[in-house]
Amino acid sequence: MTLKEAQDTVDVWIKTVGIRYFSELTNMAILTEEVGEVARIMARRYGEQSEKESDESKDLSDEMADVLWVLICLANQTGIDLTEAFQKNLDKKNIRDATRHKDNQKLR
Prior knowledge:
Elements: H1 3-16, H2 24-45, H3 60-78, H4 82-96
Helix pairs in contact: 1-3, 2-3
Domain NTP pyrophosphohydrolase MazG-like: 23-99
Protein name: Nucleotide pyrophosphohydrolase
Pfam families: MazG
């Protein structure tokens, strides 16, 4: 699925099953909550925090998909074409960081 297809799929789902989009501010709060859920799993599963029994059943891929879903909602609501935005961002990184990481002694 392309980013465009994902944006279209989310839009159709929101307008049919979901009835309407939540406000942009509500979705921003939801995005923050979803990122927090990813952070919790990462800190406990891959970081130094111990994983609680209640966290063991959490599906990291599902939580990341939740983040992507809400991000797509926000893009749709604000008129952002994620394909175009991602390409521009990649172009920026390729120019700005062309040698940055190769020259970083900390990465050797």
